[in-house]
Automatic annotation (TrEMBL), chains A, B, C, D:
Xref: PANTHER family: BLL5557 PROTEIN, BLR5614 PROTEIN-RELATED
Organism per entry: Deinococcus aquiradiocola
Name the record gives this protein: Transglutaminase
Domain Transglutaminase-like: 177-243
Pfam assignment, any one: Transglut_core
Length: 314, 314, 314, 314
């Protein structure tokens, strides 16, 4: 919370607005307790201007609650009846107009100088078997000076070493994905976190929305994204081993030690995900359009136009 | 989170929807840090279906953040520039269709059997000078058996003893209001909390919205309301010494030891509240109307009709 | 916190006292940040009557602090200089005279009825790859009714299936140990936790002291012990797949999702554990003997006598 | 946790050891729930080397527990039987050999730059009616530049304005004590906190031990002491309006918004404090002497000698 930068350029807005959300349909063979980690909240760098949530069928109040998990994430908790369950969320969010900061000179803190709550983020976790990648981490990156430089070298290495593509399952650990040579965004993030922790850089897993702004639109259906953060010089810093270029428009949903903490959906019982739609587009709207207008399906012309504009501006 | 009641009467909905919100205008003579404790979140008994927040002028992201206070309340934190500041919030909330539960047989726990986190709610606080009302509390209510009965006797006594009306200021304590004989909802709540704590009943102050549903509409402008909760038989129970009748439609914004924890607005510097509008009406809508439709001013015909219906039903 | 049982038998004490502690010597080739999770605190069922801590060489205050980790465990944090480091702790602790409770009728809660903080203990973690043991868990134990019965069946199965003995390393997961057929106490605990989580029983890993009281003394050097707890009927319940018999005298040091949370020592850098002595003996003393009297090496005659007495009594 | 200062003077120890503790006897006419906030724990600047706790009569485990309050203080919770209750605590604590730091140039943060958790320490509380002292605070101290300077000016003013002496009761607020002109350490601390909060300096109340080291011994019986802390330049800084000179040897027991959070004893029922002894002396011992040696009554010759030495050194 600091004073506004002196003499801002009035011709460039400091923030943009993004409409983001999802629609999920499940088929449940029996009443099923379910958790959803999908709700972004106000954070430094993002402001929720409007939101709406819709669950069909309508559940009694006692079968739908929210709680904060140990990482401060909002978790929705449902007892869904057998049959079809539809869950949707629609948001208008304000985020910075600038790209992820690049701060290559940030130093690496000595372990003895880290705040105590950060030590937890040096330990291995379910999908981050950093203890098993320690030797390789030091061999590959141990000679690099500087905290940012080391984390960036990890991302650069993963970009070269890992090919984007399925192969992993919900049980794949960082080391397993790394050794397989194939990775989706979740695996890129796990591997990045694992190498950083092995190097004594506190690191955590992040899930959220990453719209196609300022980049060539990806015509594959949008999905939730995963990236990671490294604690450097007193703050969490964004790294994205999957894309490995600074981006604009990230909306952070949740953070945790790894994907086991922040799976967007956990079902205690058999569930089939029958339909999934995720959206995230820059918008000039100042409020959510009425539901009757439907959810966006693909990047809207407006969104594309704005993205193109943004490309030119940058 | 329990199974739905067996064989519910399909002709009676279990929940109703309420549109609630506020619009506040301030005049600030200089840049002013401000806190707002105004945002309800999902809780047992309330579900936020839609929300929108609007602040004019638009603030840089760094001058507007949110945090959770030690009581788990969401606090908005602004650095407002000099001049006019407009803050508004508009919500669609689902709450139970039934009135505040009345459970006259709930027993009183011995202090030694209270969970440790509840002991904090036996201590005096800024506006709850329960230590100074202890002798009177035991004299008036010490003979009453039962936890609910004792808390209800406190409310009944305050109804008789205190006349609704201004007189208190932002500095008035429970004892001062009690001795003056005049009280607004905040004073009723402080006095109720004070007598309960003096009697070793853990009690906390609550602020929120209380729409006119199922009661004669109050044509005075609506305001935020304050009531209190007493920890009885393992849960917080609602008491409202101001109205002292069970009500439907409460939306809980925040809880704390007293009003100093949950003032809806705290300004660090001079500020003038130039305009204040608060609304809360039952609605059949399933989403918030567009902003262009404006904020509700007085109970809408729809709201009144629903209230009347509700009255007949009850 | 309840009233004492009516008419206790004055001939049987309700509690016993245990002297427990450890002495660790490390050889460090360079200044090394270290964490120790070794300090028991007051909990339901244990009361620290006296304690002393000794670190040689004496460290400046700024190089030795304590903090609470996310599970509420006390963690000592050192910056140890190069050379030899000696850390010792000596405690006098009061614990119940009775054995671990056996409550075979405790039911199993439905997931939807668990308190939200317990849901975290259903997720897999670094060494508890419960997701990979799910199929086997339901095949082996899915037919068993009752929460206690299911957890006990897990312990009985592990007793039969696993042979006590080394083979595991600091990286071995529950599934790996289970498949190897060999386990030390840490692996028994991880496997117990993993099967319980797979069965939707919230379970956590526990480390502590377990003296030889009421059992044949084990003449191998004493070590820290690991067991686990299952959340049943509103409280954490003790299970010990390694011994699988109720015991008296457990002193709980720390709890966590698995051993990665509560390793008794974590060194950020190379360290050699040159010497380790752990003790835990029943005692009639009411205070710690002077340091000059030394630390106990093997079960003292007094301890053995008391243990024997206890055996007769039981 | 930083590296030791380079080239320390080996002739001056960086730390000293203090033996501190208390002995309290109560007479209870009936079984009484009691809270004690008396247990110091490891903190930056203090290290508990040894401790012992003694309660007579011996209570069943279920009638004596500990918990952490919302401020992180350890609270002992007893259900004491009718009759005499003896509670004692004896500690060996390592603290810095230097006096309270004096840092007159520390600046005052703008409210908008304070970390969110600090905002809570700007609000009034039970005995800190800072809202009622606001006008006087700004009139007296508003012109002073600098955070440390402002807090120090508050202390200097209170030294002049308030005379040490009884007059206050357990219900006396900061303003009441201030207006009376008489104050004990608790009132000095409340008044200091109140003026600082009114000036937008986050401030909290502290209770602890303050031995007579480096000062003329006070031959009145020792008691617990109260002082306060102000958040300046990223850390809590010690101020003591009662003594208003830097001291060596403070052992911090607990912190809170005011004395209602950290009363050393709270009894829920009638209790008479029949005997109270508090000690705190510098010592060369490296462990607590046996209980048979008794608790120290008055400053020991050893303690006096060390104090005298310290005086010369300083």
């Amino acid at each position: 919370m600091t004073s506004p930068a002196s003499s801002p350029d009035p011709s460039r807005a400091e923030t943009i607005r993004i409409r983001a959300g999802f629609e999920l349909h499940f088929e449940l063979s029996q009443p099923t307790p379910m958790l959803f980690v999908v709700e972004p909240t106000d954070r430094p760098g993002q402001r929720i201007l409007a939101s709406r949530k819709r669950i069909v069928p309508d559940l009694p109040l006692a079968q739908h609650s929210s709680y904060l998990d140990p990482h401060g994430n909002t978790v929705w908790r449902l007892l869904a009846p057998a049959g079809r369950l539809e869950v949707s969320h629609d948001l208008l969010v304000e985020v910075p107009a600038h790209k992820d900061p690049v701060l290559p000179d940030l130093p690496k803190a000595l372990v003895q100088d880290l705040p105590s709550p950060m030590l937890h983020y040096l330990l291995p976790s379910r999908y981050v078997d950093s203890d098993l990648l320690s030797a390789e981490a030091w061999q590959l990156f141990g000679h690099i000076q500087g905290g940012w430089a080391q984390a960036q070298a990890v991302c650069d290495h993963l970009q070269t070493r890992l090919q984007y593509g399925a192969g992993s399952t919900a049980s794949t650990s960082a080391r397993e994905a790394y050794q397989s040579g194939y990775a989706v965004c979740r695996d890129f993030a796990h591997a990045g976190v694992a190498f950083c922790r092995a190097l004594n850089l506190p690191a955590r897993y992040v899930c959220g929305y990453l719209p196609d702004i300022g980049v060539q639109p990806d015509y594959r259906p949008m999905d939730f994204h995963a990236w990671f953060e490294v604690w450097l010089d007193g703050a969490w810093r964004t790294f994205d081993a999957r894309h490995n270029v600074p981006r604009v428009g990230r909306i952070l949903i949740a953070t945790g030690r790894d994907a086991s903490d922040v799976a967007f959906n956990t079902a205690f019982g058999g569930s089939v995900l029958a339909h999934m739609k995720v959206w995230g587009d820059q918008t000039l709207d100042t409020e959510l359009p009425p539901l009757a207008a439907g959810y966006p399906h693909t990047p809207t012309p407006e969104g594309l136009r704005l993205s193109a504009e943004w490309l030119q501006r940058d």
